[in-house]
Amino acid sequence: MNSIPQSVVALTGAGISAESGISTFRAADGLWENHPVVEVATPEGFDCNPPLVYEFYNQRRRQLLSDEIKPNPAHTALAKFEHEFNGSFLLVTQNVDNLHERAGSQNLLHMHGELLKMRCLNSEMVYDLRQDLNLDSECKCCRSPGNLRPHIVWFGEMPFHMNEINTALEACDIFIAIGTSGNVYPASGFYQKARIRKATTVELNLEATDSSFDEHIYGPASKVVPAYFEQLLRPSS
Ligand code: OAD
Hints:
Layout: E1 7-12, H1 15-18, H2 31-34, H3 37-40, H4 43-48, H5 50-64, H6 73-84, E2 88-93, H7 99-103, E3 108-110, E4 113-120, E5 126-128, E6 148-152, H8 162-171, E7 174-178, H9 190-196, E8 200-205, E9 215-218, H10 221-233
Helix pairs in contact: 6-10, 8-9
Bound molecules: 2'-O-acetyl adenosine-5-diphosphoribose.
């Protein structure tokens, strides 16, 4: 696209946080290699062995809160774009980390939930969370232990914010997928939904995926994301 777009939707996946030190899911040494998905990322897994599931997310949360994990230039570039862009911009992330917020993004939807939140199984109330969660953790609303779960969308559950996301996809004139393998529905189908209204679709990834976008740009997110979004703001520069 050579002109400045009016409406942009970007979708991020684990690849954008890889250079910040957070493992992706499907790499050879990725999270799903060492932790069976059915055991740690399904409602059935949680029913069967809650301590295992709590510990899986406790480890992820502890890592996220450690000093080593920081936003990288790709997160910063998206926040800068949101700040400087005159049109409408929605950032949708599949990531459960808080690196987009820490970089300064505001119009952001976490479709797969957030590591730093927990949810009451009875009331569905959502609370901030920075500590470990376990069977003894007492819920703030029911005051009983064992009623809390990580505020994460597990396989078989409906992602969050789908109405808002679909509305933005149907109205956008450019859709950009960043650092996602396109293995998980419905996010994997967003580029096709955006195309219905003839949006240009772009993939920024370290390597080729199976999805066929109009444009593919390959390289590490910390390099390709700042360069891509800068030329979107200033096409002639
Ligand atoms: P994946 O692990 O499936 O894919 C990560 C993608 O990032 C791959 O396509 C890599 O090529 C790419 N990548 C890796 N390093 C990169 C870098 N430095 N720069 C750019 N790209 C890079 O992760 P997701 O697609 O995010 O869901 O996975 C989608 C969902 O599957 C996750 O949200 C999670 C998981 O199951 C839930 O847990 C509900």
